[in-house]
Amino acid sequence: xxxxxxxxxxxxxxxxxxxxxxxxxxxxxxxxxxxxxxxxxxxxxxxxxxxxxxxxxxxxxxxxxxxxxxxxxxxxxxxxxxxxxxxxxxxxxxxxxxxxxxxxxxxxxxxxxxxxxxxxxxxxxxxxxxxxxxxxxxxxxxxxxxxxxxxxxxxxxxxxxxxxxxxxxxxxxxxxxxxxxxxxxxxxxxxxxxxxxxxxxxxxxxxxxxxxxxxxxxxxxxxxxxxxxxxxxxxxxxxxxxxxxxxxxxxxxxxxxxxxxxxxxxxxxxxxxxxxxxxxxxxxxxxxxxxxxxxxxxxxxxxxxxxxxxxxxxxxxxxxxxxxxxxxxxxxxxxxxxxxxxxxx
Length: 345
Known about the structure:
Blueprint: E1 25-32, E2 35-42, H1 46-67, H2 74-83, E3 88-89, H3 92-107, H4 117-122, H5 137-146, E4 153-156, E5 159-162, H6 175-189, E6 195-199, E7 202-206, E8 214-219, E9 226-232, E10 237-242, E11 247-250, E12 253-256, E13 259-260, E14 265-266, E15 270-277, H7 282-308, E16 312-317, E17 322-324, H8 326-331, E18 342-344
Parallel strand pairs: 17-18
Antiparallel strand pairs: 1-2, 2-6, 3-5, 4-5, 6-7, 7-10, 8-9, 10-15, 11-12, 13-14, 15-16, 16-17
Helix pairs in contact: 1-6, 6-7
């Protein structure tokens, strides 16, 4: 999960790699969802590409304003209403997102659980900077025992209420994927069919980069640069969850933002998980599916992948050993000169 922040007002200048009348590659970068975002468009006139990127960035800002978990937003107003035991008149889009997230949560056996925003807040991750402070164990136990889940929500005539006041929704593990799907739809509506959209490592490919597929790197969880490279086909998405961007340390122990809803504790023993997805909601699935694999750990990640319908997946455990499905092994190129220990499962 990564949390939503304001889109930076300034974007980096567009980059054209040639002076032709039809530049092969147009790129812009920005900052949204608490991370860097990049949109690359291949083979379009600059003004057409610029307009497409502008529409995508505007959509990202709209989603930020709607889904921020701890600053004023439609989602934060819903959370306040549920905590007070009151119904909330939600937009149809938010209601649809929550119903979709509830289905995916049930499919994961509750390991993907956007209703545990209270636990995320307790651990200090509802902030732009994280204090190295451990929360009160009794407060954690109370929230775990309350068992907040999206199944507690009731939808009626546009209103949402919760039977459980401990439900506090954080869509940080869903919103980036939803934004990828929306961006792909916007670009296609504008007649742009060759693009790469990257939201902090959640990446979707449209078409090709010229005469070849789009190539992307998977961040090494403990070293600069990529652990491996792969080629993404048209309509595929890739999602990574890791313990290396949002975390703090106390007593030499790392506490990351990925919380196990069963224990209320940050997950230990896993450094990163990466999945490849495809289909109509490839973006959403790329964001969601990595979470239950991460939480299940090296003992249960393979079963979690099967439950999510994921064929291509990779987990890096706490010792740096890389666990792979056979489908993922075929896709990766380990290019650092030192292939890690691999376990094909």
